[in-house]
Fold non-specific serine/threonine protein kinase.
Amino acid sequence: TEQVHECRDNGYLLSSRKIGSGTFSKVYLAYATHERLQHSPKLVAIKIISTAEAPVEFSQKFLPCEIASLNATYKHLNVVQLYETYQNNQRSYLVLELAARGDLLEHINAVSEHPGRPGLEEEARRLFWQLVSAVAHCHSSGIVHRDLKCENILLDDQGLLKLTDFGFANRSGLRNSLLSTFCGSVAYTAPEILMSKKHNGEQADLWSLGIILYAMVTGKRPFKERRPHHMLHLTRRGPTSGYSCEPLPTECQDLIRGLLELRPRARLDVQQVAAHCWMLPAAHALFPHHAQLVARWAGAPSRVGRSLAPRCPS
């Protein structure tokens, strides 16, 4: 049975129901007391970080970066919201938006049990559009996520997608700056990072989007290897031998291959992904002024030029 007790550091009623965990953190369902309702909804998720047990680098670098990134992306519909933060000598508390339907990996596994269900491609397209919207918003705010994977994407009760877990995010503010740190999960990591090269964080995020889209439409990852050097060998084999897109619609295949391009500079950027013809049905259904929205993400003029024309396989 669920037990509830008051969290004295912040005045929320903390449930015994754990809904997530990390190396140095646990996430619990919580209820806002009357005096907290002005700051947050009734039901929230509270992430409790054991700062006393975590390495100094985590407490002084990754946690502040996560908080700063969530603050910078505040009020985007597809990024989990940070309502408040608290801390004491032992712990830090992040009061977060609740996404009660679990993560995208759980959803993909559940859907994979019913492969013939109507509307699966449409659902994948709708969710992927929301993910692209969230990532585009992050990039336009000077933030690269660096740990995009199905487990870091949540769903709420309305079926809306919520991007979360910004612990590895980088806030350079410079769109063409190069990074050198290895971050994220090997199965989602771009080949240039596996080769220990300096890399563009936005381009690396786009590779991860390709892995996620492949998983959404096939129910499996294109590369299952968890060891970096073996994973690098798989990705170097190229799209024709490294993974198969054959059962998928031609437009979807083209989008995946454009994202899983080994050459970072040849990889699709977020504008081109949003303008891709496979994405258009979801874009027009959710956002009638699709062209203006895509242009605004990149800080471009509202008139769409050739680079934003829908890409379709020839």
